[in-house]
Amino acid sequence: MKDAIVHFFLETVGREWCVFFCSLLPIIELRGAIPLGAGLGLPWWQSFVISIVGNMLPVPFILLFIKAILGWMSRCRVKLFNKFANWLYGKVDKKRGKVERYAFWGLFLFVAIPLPGTGAWTGSLIAAMVDQKFWKAILSTFLGVLAAGVLMTLISYGVVSIAGCA
User: Is 43 helix (H, G, I), strand (E, B) or coil?
Assistant: First the structure.
């Protein structure tokens, strides 16, 4: 079974698409996609570019639609959805002042830290919930994703091999 899965992803889908799809996933994002690209033998620049594009792809959709989705969830009869949406609204309201004060650079730093749960998905969610302007949120998130991408590329491929000194 394992061999069939590996064959499907590497031979049918391809290494580049594996990295791309990995970078789309919440929590994993480019923090997992760039090391995956390194492990699959892709050049550093290819993993970097593919991961940036894949990680940024969901951002505009999150910024545009998450409030409507959470609004629906908070009115939903499914208790799990309702509880999650209301919990999230409560967390955002509690931290709203601090987030709004440091909005652009705070969002940038939050997205740039290469830890699970601090990427573009969560950053976009925060930006949407505090009503940050769309283009400001896109730029801040993009700069954060770039910074995280540089850090993860340096970690995954090593500074020496990137600089061409090896």
Answer: coil
